[in-house]
Amino acid sequence: MAKTETHYTLPRAEFDKPVKLLIVVAPYYKDISDNQIAGAKAEIEASGGTWDIVEVPGALEVPTAISIADRQSNFDGYVALGCVIRGETTHYDTVCNDSSRALQMLGLQGLCIGNGILTVENRKQAELRADPNAMNKGGGAAAAALHLIALSRKWGAQTKGIGFKAPSGSYLLAGENDGSSNA
Fold first, then answer.
1. Which regions of the chain are under pLDDT 50?
2. Which of 120, 139, 154, 165 has its CA 20 to 30 A from that of 77?
3. What domains, with CATH codes, occur in the chain?
4. Among residues 91, 101, 123, 124, which one is catalytic?
């Protein structure tokens, strides 16, 4: 990304009811993940939310932990954090693609997930992206999860009518009695 380039950032999500997120982090590069966590916590707290945190061994385990938490806990959303730095083998491609794909699949099932798993070429790129005072990708992932929670709450309250709905009491089905007497 060019230093002169600017991007639009949505206004912070607002909530009228408490919101609770789970931060799932793979701290393989601990200094980088610590910065991501700091950014995520700050964003969640700025929206009035609360958080819990769990560590997993690597980026491939992040989606599994989120899936387990969704089945067995009561979180509104999830923040996936970690860092994958390109190495000498194709393992980088597998970890990047599979962790991202699994998170996307969970999202398509309705989970509110902010993906902050960094996929970078070198440590310098990771440090810049993780730094809460620079690119703050941990905060960005938390903001994404919060926006998805807000959308879920907005649309979750709506109900859709299906088909034709007759006015109440206007029609009787065959064999029904409306209580009136024909005698």
1. 165, 170-172, 183
2. 120
3. 20-154 (3.40.50.960)
4. 91
